[in-house]
């Protein structure tokens, strides 16, 4: 039996109490049922999830939560219940009360508004409202990146398809939630933004990307949110993962996902919450008892069971069996228990839980929140195209001309006036949330509830004094009634809602567009406006739709803003989020930032902090983790260096940094990087412009270069799969067509490495011998060879290494004692590791370096390169190194070293251009 934990109340030694704290459960109904009371009183349930099916009004919600907390208090719970709620805004809200709870735009709508500050204010307002009725945990924000944006069911619940932009807005939202006093839960780890839907309805959607691909994109917001330190919990998705390194049926049941990836790799130490274990696919595969045990084994601290009481009791039974069978240890239970209790301590107390402020606070803050809501929706409305200048309609459509509104039949949002109206009329089955539809396989067509866009029609009709034609369209396509109305109208507005996934909407819209085009060719006035009220990707790329507007959700407030935008009450300023951003982002790139000279005493600490931020938001293969401010300063009399920063002079924070070097007529940009939260606002362009102007002013400049070997943080432009880095330099004037490819390679386990068969014999047959030298006394021939075969910065690299006692140079010679090739060998303790981050050890590993192999092109070049690397590995082994880093390998030579057991670590493109390319900057 486990010893009592001195950090815990003795009550928790009763394992039933501890188990209760590891479960989060819900139920159907707007009143406390005997079943949920039983779970709290007799099974010590510590966390509740509320959905739209539990909530009527703000007042009733406050009373319901207060009753739940009172039951827990009277039952002897040491800490209050966690009360969790999906309140993402946009189309995914659980609580609706038009008198007290405000509607705010979806995550993508907020990003379209273009203001992280707005994201913070909305998150804080939302959290303040739900906290007023007793909620202490918001299941949000959505941290997913829409890797394949047009075909993902998350849609506007995610910020967009740009990982850095998603990070920026999600961290702002987290700060808003936290500053309002509620706990936060990022979702859906490792990603719901890149799913493939395969097989039958019972099959789980699958992530097919590799972990490396996920690290470059989908995991970036998760990594950044964890690094920022204010994320209390993480929601683990129920999707599958299938790639070369992982075959997982349900992410939330996999220790590879929770313990290995989330905790060990990303460093998350908060509460892990599983996807609902009532999923049909999971029940059929493992059963609830088995699934519950697997979820705890995987590393989840809270196991979610949404609403079925019999299934919930089965989960509790499964947890007890798991402990009895020794599958789940008591230590494992207490680890989770402490995490959950720690989260409770920061977001609730009995004083707070038993006395929610309710309507007294909500009525006070409602006017300011309404103003914030209207501002946010107005700023989010985006006109992607208006080729024929149809907007505003008050100028392009005469009052006597007829306007036709065509809207799809969509299911009302769970928390909306339309749903409330349906329920009040006796239809008590509320619209299920997106989450519930997926979890419980309610995947029927979304067509029902004709009244969703009725108020939109009425609003337009009021402006036009009743002069509006409004009808719906369905999967039945273009009917005679539609054709007749189109013939009558001078202007048509078609509303679409996720046309990429509801293909009938796409087909219908294209049919109407073609019909309007034909009628215009015969002299009829047929203006067409398409409005996407959910995913903006419906017609983003279809230029045949000349006027295209996006609202990012179809809440009543969004539709009210749409009407004001259509009729010119304000000029829409929103932009497409992520990689589809349009005019608003373009105008931002014209911003000029003040660029200052880098000063070590003033900026050194800020540069170290900026490198840490970049390490958290970048793939581990990039050098930020092991680089420091010292990496970029050579203090070499043969190298002129000038470095630049964009900084906040008030806070001393660095927003961006650029390093430049000038040596023997070559001007080099050796680094340029920007804080991820400050990208796309022209900081990088400002730094580049200043750096290039400094280089162009150097007398004797013969060529300019991107990338430098010494210091070697960036030997060139990092190669990425989508070519984004290179295209950025294309856009600022570089010709990137003919780069020199440089690759860093590594042997991770040096102890297990063996030399390729026959390599030693081949070297002997070629009469190649090797020796090792230190110091500059015998180095003249080495420096001469290097100067003839590589750039002047490589000569300085060799000169530096020869003066470092922890480094040496291996020379390859022929039988006549002629020098054939050279390579630098060093230990991780060498001063060289300061300037070449790949040599820097992380943790307790000892890294040996094999640096800058140089050989003239001869018949034996390949053998010489392998021989130099071979001697380097032997030296590293002799120096007790645990791994060898080979930096750098030219062009296609990496195949030679791959055959020796080296693996690619990083790849860069060194790019050289003529200064004439930048004459406009001189």
Tell me briefly what this model is.
This protein has 922 residues and is of the alpha/beta class. Helices cover 38% and strands 18% of the residues.
How would you describe what is shown here?
With 922 residues, the chain is α/β, with parallel strands linked by helices. The protein folds into 4 domains: 22-363, Alpha-Beta Barrel (TIM Barrel); 382-410 and 446-571, Rossmann fold, CATH 3.40.50.1700; 596-739, Aminopeptidase (3-Layer(aba) Sandwich), CATH 3.40.630; 742-909, Gcn5-related N-acetyltransferase (GNAT) (Aminopeptidase). Helices cover 38% and strands 18% of the residues. It has 31 helices and 33 strands. The strands form 5 sheets. Strands 21, 22, 23, 24, 25, 26, 27, 28, 29, 30, 31, 32 and 33 form a 13-stranded mixed sheet that branches. Strands 13-10-7-6-3-2-1-14 form an 8-stranded parallel sheet, sandwiched between helices. α4 packs across α14. The radius of gyration is 32 Å and the shape is globular.
Please supply descriptive tags for the structure shown above:
922 residues; alpha/beta; TIM Barrel; Rossmann fold; Aminopeptidase; 4 domains; 8-stranded parallel β-sheet; 31 helices; 33 strands; 18% strand; globular
